[in-house]
Write a structure and sequence with these properties.
Blueprint (H helix, E strand, L loop, with lengths): L1 H21 L2 E11 L8 E8 L2 E6 L5 E7 L4 E4 L1 E3 L7 H4 L4 H4 L3 E6 L10 H9 L14 H10 L5 E4 L1 E2 H9 L8 H16 L4 E5 L10 H13 L3 E5 L7 H15 L3 E3 L12 H14 L4 E5 L4 E5 L13 H7 L3 H12 L7 H5 L4 E5 L13 H8 L3 H12 L4 E5 L3 H9 L3 E3 L20 H16 L5 H8 L1 H7 L15 E4 L20 E6 L2 E5 L2 E2 L20
Parallel strand pairs: 1-4, 1-5, 6-7, 7-8, 9-10, 10-11, 11-12, 12-13, 13-17
Antiparallel strand pairs: 1-2, 2-3, 5-18, 14-16, 15-16, 18-19, 19-20, 20-21
Length: 563
Amino acid sequence: MARRRGRLAPALAALLLAGCATAPSYDLLIRHGTVHDGSGGAPFVGDVAVAGDRIAYVGPHAPGTARKVIDATGKAVAPGFSSTLSWATESLLIDGRGLSDLRQGVTLEVMGEGSSMGPLTPAMAKALAARQEEGLGYPVRWTTLGGYLDHVAAGGIAPNIASFIGAATAREMVLGEAAIDPDPAQIEAMRGVVRRAMDEGAMGVASALIYPPGTFAKTPELVALAGAAAECGGVYATHLRSEGDRFLESVDEAIGIGRAADVPVHYYHLKVGGRDNWPKMATAIARIEAARQSGLRVSADVYPYIASGTWLDASMPPWLFDGGMEAGIARLQDPATRRRAIADMQGKGDWENVLRMAGPDKATIAGVRTAALQPLIGRTLADIARERGVSPEEAAIDLVVADRGRVDTIYETMSEDNLRAALGWPFTGIASDAPAIAAEGAFLNSRVHPRTYGSFARILGHYARDEKSFPLAEAVRRMSGLPAAILGLADRGLLRAGHHADIVLFGPATIADHADFTDPHRYATGVTDVFVNGIAALADGKPTGAASGRVVRGRGWHACPAR
């Protein structure tokens, strides 16, 4: 009998060794969490395992062991969230942690609304350096969009980054900032700019049609640029030409561009401003859904607030800025030109006058570059005008001239019912439309929009949990699986084996936004852990400082050379 045991021992040892050899060994194992995989399907209690930068297992019970194990009992485990409209373009150059978004679970910042950080002519690079705020400067050491993305990533960043090529940037590369119509050769040159950016990894081409020089572009120009992006697998994203009086016409223009260029269309911050225009939202959503039903890929995003945030010069007629901001400021030194501009601002022109939609008592100064103007932050334009004994329009002009820039402003123009209607459409994602900053240092010099610190947590906490606007699984889909599908990212946005390990852990009962318009520099709470490409960027609620982020490139990368 003893001899028999001796013969079996080596065989048993071999079986045990074989079992050890086949059992997975992970770098990270998240156990017992409530898994929301990003598809919108029913969550389940189970495990998520990570090997290197990829997800290795998602299911009820991961076999094997791991170098690090997290007990996620009671927590939601979700794919990292994507901000489909981010202005982290400059903030990540200054502070790569992106804490205002990281603490909400954002792992991908998608930039490039209207204008992008590349490509740049020498004049554009000089202007970019000149507009930087005091204490928030950075050197401009790139000339292309791909070069910018690589430069940011090389500096060490927590989130992943991606970008569209700005339609206004392509225009400025060829035409400068002049209000002129391009000829066929210039159109082709602009298409070449788009194709080169797509070859460098751009997600598509994006317009912002209320801001010069983008507002000078007519529909055929946009069709040509969107067509170039479409040839490279890209998307056409747009800040509409009007989100007010001509809202429905602008919705139709974007659909027409999509059909003419055979390109997917994405609406940035789907909203309508001005009380008289609020009833138009239902019609707009019906038209967008009809376009989708007809075969056009259409999507949108929102930020969950009823005040917008943009520049004070958006209240001024575009003709002022033919040739750029400095040209506009120079024109405003002429009394006759100033009177004409004020008359236009007080009238009802064919351009997007955000101040008229909001009213001066609902327009609050949020950020300036000039130290002497800092005391005006937090005050309404109506209050400033009364103090100075001038009209609100003249006060706005005075501020833009004094600051030699755009002057960040918050405008109360929207309705909660319309926000809920936009959220009710299943192809609406979530965006911050804001920089990714820290509540410290020079960032505190501006009274930013609370969407900077709260957009994603507000959706999960206020709208999904408290108001029950949709199930938590659907809220997670809007921030993860949906944006990945919109952008054509095949291996992000879902908790699936083989996908990049961008993962968020949060407390469904505790996640909350805290920023408001009075005190906006307040971090959201409830997110405990964030992994970006398998690396812990936030651990036990504290930023690790790890350079976990990478450049995420579109489908045209290295496949779309300029002709």
